[in-house]
Each structure stands twice: as structure tokens, then as C-alpha cells.
Amino acid sequence: MSAVLSTKQSIYETITAHIIQAIADGVGRAVMPWHGGVVPVVMPRNAATEMPYHGVNVVALWATAAMKLYPSGYWASYEQWRKLGAQVRKGERGSPIIFYKKQSGEAEPATVEEAEAPRVVLRHSHVFNFAQVEGWDLPEAATRVSQVEINEQVAAFISATRADIRHRGLSAFYDRVADYIAIPPVSLFTGSPSCSPTEGYYSTLLHELTHWTGAAHRLDRVQGKRFADPDYVFEELVAELGAAFLCSALHLVNEPRPDHAAYINHWLALLARDSRAIFAAASHAQRAVEYLRTLTGSRVP
């Protein structure tokens, strides 16, 4: 089921409010919907097409999964589940997603910019998680890859970007002027009960790599000049989401960074002030992932 919205703002506000609620639920633990919590964070995927969702739809579905404790990443519309021979349980409510279509009917990627293009119509639909249906079995899990193999694949992915990465100091950051990433040696990362020191190192590095994509000679994002100014807060949200998309695709645990708590209230204020901010941030994050994927020749979603 899909619908043309009478105003674009209504779906922006609906999805933004949904994500704000999920973020607020994790405030006491500094855990966002894109971090590992009670249930693992997995890339949302359509059960009928096997295609991953993208952009803000990923964040919106992660928000639902975090609040409802859905362990599966499989989603589909009511009609898609029906065609798969499954039945959505009575009383279950769908989660909103968006997509754009040309008026001729050709589907377009879900980006805010394309929503503003001539002859492009914003539509929305509702999807249901596997946990909300009966009569369908999860596909057989692929052969589990060892953590050693995962780490090797992530290391190769990062190396293929040819980013200037310097191991020094006690904090991680991207130097925009000198165009390099500084990060402490992996030996200084301590990990947590759910995240190894190596995973913590790589998730931090993927965050900084997302910042790195925003340089003027790459994707040319405005990144802000000081903590808490609007552009700075927005860029941190882009890097958060970019790292989350990459960690999920690369099968890494995305552990909350020590500085996350300092940003949460700023992110909540940003989303409350501008219902399109999360759409734009997710769009920029998706572009960053695609840019890195192109550099590395990777098939990362």
C-alpha cells in the first residue's frame, strides 16, 4: 500500500518524530537506534526482493527494530507478504518508509534533493517486520564468516580508500586542512562486553572516513567550524549514520563512541527544529558510503 501525501511535510514529520522517539529511548545509555543494544543492528532488507533499504528508510526501520526489539532485518509491505504466502498478524502496525517516483511511474532513489525535482512525486508506504507475520520462514543463514576474516575484509576496504591515516595521540579526528585522519593505535582501544577492541577501532575509523569523504575535492559537504554550531552538529550526524551503514554492511558491531553523549541533545534539538534534517543527513551518509564503495570496488550496500 502506498499513497501520495497531500504535503511532503507530513511524512517528514511522521518519520522524524518516530526517530526522535527511538533516540530519546536510548538517551540514558547514549545508545542510538543504529548501535547494538538488546537486539543486533542488521541492514534492513526487503523480504520479497532481497534488496537492502537505503538512506532514511534504514534509520527509520532501525528505530522501529530498536523500540520493538525485532531481531530480524527482513521487512515487506502487506501485499508483498501476502504474495510470499505469509499473513500479517491482526492488530500489527506497519512502519513508514518513503520513496520517490517520476510521474511516469519510474522509481527514483529516496533522496531529499530528488523530492524537489520537477515531476517527481514523494510517496510513502508501510512495511512489516518478519516478527509481525506468520507463514514465512527466514532464509537459511549464509555460512558464518569468522571475526578474523571480517577484520581482514574491513582492513582491506579501508586500505583501498587510500586515505592518509596516521596513528597517533589519544583521540580520533579528521583534519580538514591537512586532509588526514588521526586515530589512536588499535592497542589503546579497550572494547566492551559486546564489542572487541578491534571492532571499536574500525567503527571509529569508519566514522572518520565518512568525515573524510566530505572534503571539498570529494563530496564537498559543509562541515562546521566548532562544536555545537549547526553545521558541525549536522556533519557529526552524517558521520554517525555513515559509520552505522558501513558497520552493518561489513558485519561489525557499532559501539557508541565516548563523545556520543555530548551530541545527543544537539541531535534531538536539530531534528525537532527541522523535520527534514534526518532525511538530508541520511542522504549524505548514503552518498558517502557509495563514494567509498566506488573507491574500493566493494559491493557494500
What does the model show?
- With 301 residues, the protein is of the alpha+beta class.
- It folds into two domains: 2-134, no CATH class; 147-296, no CATH class.
- Helix content is 42%, strand content 14%.
- The protein contains nine helices and eleven strands.
- Strands 1, 2, 3, 5, 6 and 7 form a six-stranded mixed sheet that branches.
- A hairpin with a 4-residue loop joins strand 5 and strand 6.
- The model is unreliable at 1-6 (pLDDT under 50).
Task: Please provide a brief summary of the model.
The chain has 301 residues and is an alpha+beta fold. The protein has helices at residues 8-25, 56-68, 78-83, 112-115, 147-160, 197-213, 230-249, 260-273, 277-296, and strands at residues 2-4, 45-46, 74-77, 87-88, 95-102, 107-108, 120-129, 133-134, 165-167, 173-175, 180-183. Mean pLDDT is 86; it is low at 1-6.
Architecture blueprint of SSEs:
Layout: E1 2-4, H1 8-25, E2 45-46, H2 56-68, E3 74-77, H3 78-83, E4 87-88, E5 95-102, E6 107-108, H4 112-115, E7 120-129, E8 133-134, H5 147-160, E9 165-167, E10 173-175, E11 180-183, H6 197-213, H7 230-249, H8 260-273, H9 277-296
Parallel strand pairs: 2-3, 9-11
Antiparallel strand pairs: 1-7, 3-7, 4-8, 5-6, 5-7, 10-11
Helices and strands, in order, run as EHEHEHEEEHEEHEEEHHHH
Main pleated sheet: 6 strands, mixed
- Low-confidence segments, ≥5 residues, pLDDT <50? 1-6
Question: Could you say which structural class the secondary elements and strand pairing correspond to?
Answer: alpha+beta
Mean pLDDT: 86
Instruction: Tell me roughly what share of residues is in helical segments.
Output: 40-55%
Radius of gyration: 19 Å
- Helix segment tally: 9
Shape: globular
Q: How many beta-strand segments?
A: 11
Beta percentage is 5-15%
Total domain modules: 2
Spatial gap, N to C terminus: 25 Å
